[in-house]
């Protein structure tokens, strides 16, 4: 970590500090099938320490279909302007609202193969209210997750 005079953080130190406080994060990775992403959520590990743990994965097909959602989430969560390049590297912090939207998209896109419908679903989640997405995420990660996933897939147009 580097510090300027007067104790202000710069560069990597600032982004690491922001990631430590982030409730969600997005990690872009390259796989044999193409570029994909991992959605991470902050929570306690087995020892009770506060850590980012894997919540869901975005397949290469879903990544390409939902790239506008992912770019908007990174841009809005980090106060960036202009076009955002999603490339492999360190995890990117996400706010509660955008993290919930991206996590919902990752969960409902799992196993789906229709890129057009995935694009429609990502657009609907991009425009969705963050609080509503957080409510759906609670249902998706609960005991009735498969029923909630089916319902959200139908509502967002990811399936017929």
SSE diagram, text form:
Blueprint lengths: L10 H11 L2 E8 L2 E11 L5 E9 L1 H6 L1 H12 L13 E3 L1 H14 L5 H13 L2 H11 L4 H12 L4
Antiparallel strand pairs: 1-2, 1-4, 2-3
Give a verbal description of the structure:
This protein has 160 residues and is an alpha+beta fold. The chain has one domain. Helix content is 49%, strand content 19%. The protein contains 7 helices and 4 strands, in the order αβββααβαααα. It has a 4-stranded antiparallel sheet. The longest helix has 14 residues.
Low-confidence spans: 1-10
Tell me the helix content.
40-55%
Number of domains: 1
**Measured distance between first and last alpha carbons:** 50 Å
Q: Kindly name the structural category.
A: alpha+beta
Question: Looking across the biggest beta sheet, what order are the strands in?
Answer: 3-2-1-4
Count all strands and give the number.
Answer: 4
Coarse morphology? globular
Radius of gyration: 16 Å
Order of helices and strands: HEEEHHEHHHH
Characterize the largest beta sheet: strand count, sense, and whether it forms a barrel. Answer: 4 strands, antiparallel
Strand content: 15-25%
* Annotation field: number of helices: 7
Instruction: State mean pLDDT (0 to 100 scale).
Output: 90
Question: What are the key terms here?
Answer:
alpha+beta, 4-stranded antiparallel β-sheet, 7 helices, 4 strands, disordered N terminus
Structure described in brief:
With 160 residues, this protein is α+β, with helices and mostly antiparallel strands. It contains seven helices and four strands.
